[in-house]
């Protein structure tokens, strides 16, 4: 079947059509022609009316809670929410029940993903049961389709285990780590600083993240291989990674979208939906993260969709679970950051950046490329209060609030999925 996108503005720095308003003709799942006058009477017309089009957005680390926690989210609902949010590909984390740590677990996720409109990728656990004691069957998982290994928010306390994992997987898969030192963050509820003191909440110090990054950079240098830092959140972390890249280390990093638009002051009303890991930091950290995106220190923007049910969020702050589930409204929420770093940089960090980090298939808007696309209007005013969320999660603080920037739909697997 053929589809024709008309009058769309290309946002793709790798495309020869970047910045141009064109028509794009697709046959099945391949872009066959691009140009101002391209047409085909047999194609299904999707009118762009000047909207933007980019390669499909990629989410680097989200949890769809399948298997084991389907009351919070399941793969079907998570995929629908992701498509509404503009994401054509989502990489799932292994913190499920049971943990994704064997060949059969990877095959299970990928098979279920085939029945969705988005591309599902899977990260396998680095250590058995995410306990940081014993390596998993990493090679078998990679053979089954795992795109990397990650112990999710469980810190790898043993540096030797990380060293062995990096040496073992050198030839077949990337390693991702969440930088935090468990002994320095135990019981912490939010960023350590004046606001935590004012609210009477135990703080999570910035150096708990920075100390772990410094340690892991030594391991990366020793093993002479790449390492990806997921969800960095502090000014010091940005500088450590900037210096490491300047020394030639093959390290990459991403930042969660909420750390680009919010500070710790969002917690002044004890709203547990803003209790996240890593925590919301101070304005100087936000500024440093934005600068890190602009200068290339930070490679990608992640959403870190972590669904929770009502019982885990509507409770005393100390007892509430960490996490935010905002994949279907993240683009609108990101608008303040887009204004500061620019639309082209933002899209770069949602498309090519994540694909490079995990060696995913390269996508660009050019003849002959696979048609995996996101269509959006960055200037359209949005109010989702009239719509029902597609995610099952109860912890999206942005849903129902007005904003700017609307996703119009995605094209993936030869299908146009309109966001409604």
Which helices and strands occur, and which strands form pairs?
Blueprint: E1 2-10, E2 21-27, E3 30-35, E4 44-47, E5 52-55, E6 57-62, H1 75-84, E7 87-92, H2 103-113, E8 119-124, H3 138-144, E9 148-150, H4 159-168, E10 175-177, H5 182-185, E11 190-191, H6 194-199, E12 203-204, H7 206-223, E13 227-229, H8 235-246, E14 251-256, H9 258-261, H10 283-295, E15 300-302, H11 310-313, H12 330-333, H13 335-341, H14 343-350, H15 352-357, E16 373-382, E17 403-412, E18 415-418
Parallel strand pairs: 1-4, 1-5, 6-7, 7-8, 8-9, 9-10, 10-13, 11-12, 13-14, 14-15
Antiparallel strand pairs: 1-2, 2-3, 5-16, 16-17, 17-18
| Overall shape | globular
Q: Provide a count of the helices.
A: 15
Instruction: Report the average pLDDT across residues.
Output: 97
Strand content: 15-25%
Largest sheet: 8 strands, mixed
The CATH topology label of the largest domain is: TIM Barrel
The CATH homologous superfamily of the largest domain is called Metal-dependent hydrolases
Q: Give the name of the CATH architecture of the largest domain.
A: Alpha-Beta Barrel
- Helix/sheet category: alpha/beta
> What Rg do the Cα atoms give?
21 Å
**Total number of distinct structural domains:** 2
The assembly state of the depicted protein chains is single chain
Q: What CATH first level of the largest domain would be assigned?
A: Alpha Beta
Helix content: 25-40%
Summarize the structure.
With 420 residues, the chain is of the alpha/beta class. The protein has helices spanning 75-84, 103-113, 138-144, 159-168, 182-185, 194-199, 206-223, 235-246, 258-261, 283-295, 310-313, 330-333, 335-341, 343-350, 352-357, and strands at 2-10, 21-27, 30-35, 44-47, 52-55, 57-62, 87-92, 119-124, 148-150, 175-177, 190-191, 203-204, 227-229, 251-256, 300-302, 373-382, 403-412, 415-418.
């Amino acid at each position: 079947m053929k589809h024709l996108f008309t009058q769309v503005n290309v946002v793709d720095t790798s495309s020869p059509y970047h910045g141009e308003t064109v028509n794009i003709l697709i046959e099945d799942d391949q872009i066959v022609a691009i140009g101002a006058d391209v047409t085909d009477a047999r194609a299904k017309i999707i009118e762009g009316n000047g909207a933007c089009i980019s390669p499909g957005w990629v989410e680097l680390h989200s949890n769809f809670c399948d298997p084991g926690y389907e009351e919070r989210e399941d793969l079907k609902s998570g995929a629908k929410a992701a498509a509404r949010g503009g994401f054509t590909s989502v990489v799932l984390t292994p913190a499920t029940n049971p943990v994704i740590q064997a060949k059969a677990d990877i095959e299970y996720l990928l098979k279920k993903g085939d029945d969705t409109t988005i591309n599902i990728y899977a990260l396998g656990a680095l250590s058995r049961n995410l306990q940081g004691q014993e390596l998993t069957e990493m090679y078998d998982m990679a053979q089954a389709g795992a795109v990397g290994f990650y112990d999710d928010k469980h810190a790898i306390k043993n540096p030797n285990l990380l060293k062995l994992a990096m040496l073992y997987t050198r030839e077949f898969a990337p390693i991702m780590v969440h930088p935090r030192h468990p002994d320095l963050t135990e019981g912490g509820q939010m960023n350590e600083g004046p606001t935590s003191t004012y609210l009477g909440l135990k703080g999570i110090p910035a150096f708990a993240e920075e100390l772990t990054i410094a340690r892991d950079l030594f391991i990366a240098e020793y093993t002479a291989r790449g390492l990806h830092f997921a969800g960095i959140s502090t000014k010091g972390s940005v500088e450590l990674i900037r210096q490491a890249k300047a020394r030639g280390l093959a390290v990459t990093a991403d930042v969660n979208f909420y750390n680009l638009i919010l500070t710790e002051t969002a917690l002044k009303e004890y709203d547990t939906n803003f209790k996240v890991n890593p925590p919301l930091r101070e304005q100087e950290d936000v500024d440093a993260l934005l600068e890190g995106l602009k200068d290339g220190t930070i490679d990608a923007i992640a959403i870190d969709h972590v669904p929770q049910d009502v019982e885990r969020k509507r409770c005393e702050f100390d007892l509430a679970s960490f996490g935010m589930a905002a994949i279907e409204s993240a683009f609108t929420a990101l608008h303040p950051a887009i204004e500061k770093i620019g639309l082209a940089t933002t899209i770069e960090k949602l498309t090519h950046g994540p694909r490079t980090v995990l060696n995913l298939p390269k996508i660009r808007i050019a003849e002959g490329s696979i048609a995996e696309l996101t269509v959006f209007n960055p200037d359209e005013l949005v109010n989702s209060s009239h719509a029902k969320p597609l995610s099952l999660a109860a912890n999206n603080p942005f849903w129902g609030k007005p904003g700017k920037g609307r996703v119009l739909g995605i094209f993936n697997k030869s299908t146009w999925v309109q966001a409604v």
